[in-house]
Fold these 2 entries.
Entry 1:
Amino acid sequence: MAIELPDDLIARERTAWTEIQEGRLTVAAALAVHEATPAFAAREDVEATRLAIEERLKRLVRHPEPEAAAA
């Protein structure tokens, strides 16, 4: 089952990942992802676990597929 992540969650992770790479991760950026991930997992229409969501999110942002990175 593919996990369809919301755009705002992806954007939060991208912001945090950019800050991590630049050596300036802020509490606000980390907290934004930290709070949004379990909130998404708790939705009734989401069957994936929080862990699966976090894994998918990090894979999507930090290790994108070549065709997704080019888009």
Entry 2:
Amino acid sequence: MRLGAIVLLFLAILQPAHAADRWSFETHPHPSYPDEYAQEDLAMIADINALGFDGCAAQVAFDYLIYNRTYPDYALKHDGEDGLEAWKLHVLRTERSASAFCIVQTVSEALREVYILRPSESRLDGLFCGRFGRPAETILEDRVVELLHKLVSFAETGHYFAIPELLRSRNWLDFRFNPDIRYYLEARQERRYGNEPAPILRQAVIELQGRDRLAFVEDAIARNDLAGVIATSPDCSAFTPEARAKAREAARGDPI
């Protein structure tokens, strides 16, 4: 059962409506971790597991219930799924909930399942390159787009686990990141440990997109602005193998 289903099950007695004013997570933060659980709360997580939900789904569902129990108006002012997704981004930005890791893990695991279950002949060419390249054409692609939208939004928070999980998604979905987007993700991940991304990734941005683009990405890294890089990155078609070869030749001054 999907995570949203369990959350909506627990909140079914409420009748959510659209918020008349914008909700502020700054003034309504998730309860701090040391105050998060009472003994009966831990017992309830065990009960959720017993109902058939795995550890991560149970953890996320229960932490969301804690938030709604702390701020009852939240569920009343937000549609169920929209409220859940907004809360997830708050948790990832602030690390105020123990479920931050699980929020990312549930989506990345769902993407792996899509890869395992998809027909061997199915291809996702041009669908995604760090940004979306074309509309989904099949039910399978609809599911991939839904999950990637979530994973990208998680990575845009700068969360330590979301960025490498977005990077790893290319290993099972058979797509290439645009050079600038990949450099951003790799640099954020490596610099977290005091390292630098592979020089070839930096050179790819210079050769294919220019030094000004590299400077833009470096500035975006300093500002934690993955969304800005994605929004200004070229269409996926700009970096097909053929387009890459032409761009490299042009950068070297060779005849195309």
